[in-house]
Amino acid sequence: MSEMSAGAIRRKPLVMRYPSLLIFLACLAVFTVGVTVLSEGLGIGVISTSFIKTLGKTLCLCLVALAMDLVWGYCGILSLGHMAFFGIGGYAIGMWLMYTRTELIVVQSLANRPLPPTPEEISDGIATQIFGVVGASEFPPIWAVAHSLPLQLAAVVLVPGLLALVFGWLAFRSRVTGVYLSILTQAMTLALSLYLFQNDSGLRGNNGLSGLQNLPGLGDVPQSVVSMWFFWASALALGVGYVLCVAIVSGKFGSVIRAIRDDEARVRFLGYPVEAYKLFIFAFTAILAGIAGALYYPQAGIVNPAEIAPIASIYLAVWVAIGGRGRLYGAVIGAAFVSLLSTWFTGGQAPDVNLGFATIQWVDWWTVLLGLSFVAVTLFAPKGIGGVFDLIAHKRSPDRHGADLGPEPGALREREADQ
Amino acid sequence: MSTLLEVSGVSVSFDGFKAINNLSFNIGPRELRAVIGPNGAGKTTFMDIITGKTRPDEGKVLWGEKSQSLLAMSESRIAQAGVGRKFQRPTVFEDQTVAENLMLALRKSRNPLSVLRFRPSRDDEEKVGELAAEIGLGAALGRKSGELSHGQKQWLEIGMLLAQDPKLLLVDEPAAGMTPSEREHTTDLLVEAAKTRAVVVVEHDMEFVRRLGCKVTVLHEGSVLAEGSIDHVTSDKQVIEVYLGR
Predict the structure, then answer these.
(1) pLDDT tens profile A350-397
(2) Considering CB atoms only, which of B79, B104, B132 is closest to A255?
(3) What is the domain partition of chain B in residue ranges?
(4) Per the CB < 8 Å rule, is B129 touching A3?
(5) Which residues pair with A106 in a beta bridge?
(6) What is the CATH class of B5-244?
(7) CA-based nearest distance A70→chain B, Å
């Protein structure tokens, strides 16, 4: 009898072990089809192209939130630097977009000259076009493969992945955990953003890369259609990312990383090389973030160093916390809900509130509201929005008598054991 | 009798305080041993050294037939080599079910890539079921371990150690906070476990140690004060003076 119940827990297909997967994929599919039908470019025109882009960008934010939930909610590593990987992904694809499109423009403008232009002239022309804004006219070495789409696409995956591997290896090997690791990741993203702000960083300083919404060679295709392509690609990436994350967290690997989150030392004494697991998750989520960024910035049209500022990664943690960490759909709900709400408030659409003695203008006060809701969620509803689903499913978590579930299983549990 | 673990001349100090002072200790492959001593005698530090949590300042820790040194190995490597440890407070993964906890501990490859591909076979599931039955949690496989009583958590942790199938089992105060009947069950489990492996039990409770009926090592100020049967050590003058007489 006992072995049957063991089997009942383990021997089920992925969807049965993780019923929310099917629901999520169905919701995503319905959403994608619905938006397509209502779109300006391909449907009946209820949703404007700019809002399609907002929705597409939101899907990318959901993907990076998924990565954040995996690394923080499941593995207990509160990384406050994942938006750096997101930004790197954007830069990597942005370099190709900008280079190729500028090349077309330069070739076109040189075509009318009596002598056909030499490759050097074309290259100089592109460099002057791209780097004139920072007072340079030569290609920095970092642009060496910018002409090649496959190589820049490889960079979308490899650069964040390798950076995360090196950074993670250094940090995890020295057993840096908890708040110290969070500070370290903040330092990483700050350093990267400060470096990119410099004009001689080779990536156009604070101007960043722009004009990314224009796909080279497809100038005839209207933005209303291009936006749909990116919307679909974002939806597909989110769907595939979700399935991958479910595959990781639902099996024994997920069991190990949740155990690492709750009691790292104990996992080590079970014989698991904890550092290798953390490194795997850290690098994998960095790659997910890079892919999300590579889909986000062509929809935003511009990527600049301000996108990598430390606050961006903190927002990411706030989305996951509000959505409910430790459950994948929670991260998606949190990112979608908060980022869309943020667009509404900061877009000037929210009506001002007149209190008599002062007027609350939401463009300024939205961050205060967001901060207060973050504090409220942390104190009163630590499960976040995702906790609502537990109420529906009548799922109760075990009574821990106040002991922590978090990465620092602290004194409370010890006190419980002493009694 | 051959030796499984040989600790010789080990010393370690924290900020000048000698927690372990020239300690030597041997245990055979199928032996039950109780380690007793007053607070601060170095019992927990002794376990920390064997499991790789603390590095000693000097001395040797040799393991197994090949006399491998444990000092150069990481905690996870030592655990893979066959040293299992049970902590004083029950540390099970409360957010996970009893079955998941046991499956985590089951002796399998610990490599991340093989864990990623791991699917439990029927054998694995049967093993988990048997273990659960052995620790009296056969009906609780699907329950989250956070819901279990204190004593059940202690057993689950012992079950996890058995699943790990270590050659040496280090157990820190297994009877702490248990009811008399739970204690009896624990004694049986430990005696049974020692038939197939070495078991070192650190314990305060003299009655519990007596019931184990095994060789006893008395630690005091970081070194061995006396060693022998329970009756032998309890009649030792020095032991009475530093420990029992108080």
Answers:
(1) 788 888 788 888 888 888 989 998 888 888 887 888 878 877 776 555
(2) B104
(3) 5-244
(4) yes
(5) none
(6) alpha beta
(7) 15
